[in-house]
Give the backbone structure.
Amino acid sequence: MLRKLEIIATTPVEALAAERAGADRIELIAAMSEGGLTPSYGTIVRTVQAVRLPVRVMVRPHSRSFVYTSDELETMTADIRMIRESGAAGLVFGVLTPDGQVDVAAVERLCAGAPMLPVTYHRAIDEARDIAEALRELERIPSVDRVLTSGGHADGAWHARYKLRELQAATPLKLIAAKGLTVEKLEAFLEDAEGVNEVHFGTGARVGGREDSPIDPERVEACARLLRGGQNE
């Protein structure tokens, strides 16, 4: 069992603060208030250079939905080719069909833009009509190794912790529990969602729990201690 702490960063400074406090991986985004959009190339390059941690980069042109036009997919593919040259460790994106299924063809098209980079399928899965079915579809795509999810619960992963345990037991993909997790509930979450060994913190790792606040090193350190305290050597 190897537990991982992923922290959202929007700048190189935030990524470095998260690394120093004990994070295992960075999800780099822009526009946190919109749930994350594609960051600028300059931000990507400088962040990758600033930290030793793996940096996975969000690829999302807008926050209106996870259904994209062919033109938007072309823009995303161009962004992915750019990210491929930056030294980033992976990609984060999600695409759905209008009827709420994983758009396998679109995901494969995007993966082809950087075939050597692993992909975290973004929380688009929480808007899928059937999460278990969506996971089975994603298992067919070699580049996808992780899925960021709240278990489909609008209020976050804490409220779906038992469902997340069931979903993780049924898939070889690594689920990353996201949305609404706090330091105070993390230990109980890990017990109840047994098997889900990766967690994702955004506002929960920031001063005052606010999107516009800096990374709170004490919160990140506390999360890291809880995660490592339960690992087998």
About this structure: The radius of gyration is 16 Å. The chain has one domain: 4-229. Helices lie at 12-21, 41-50, 70-84, 104-111, 131-138, 161-169, 183-192, 217-229. The CA atoms of residues 32 and 212 lie 8 Å apart.
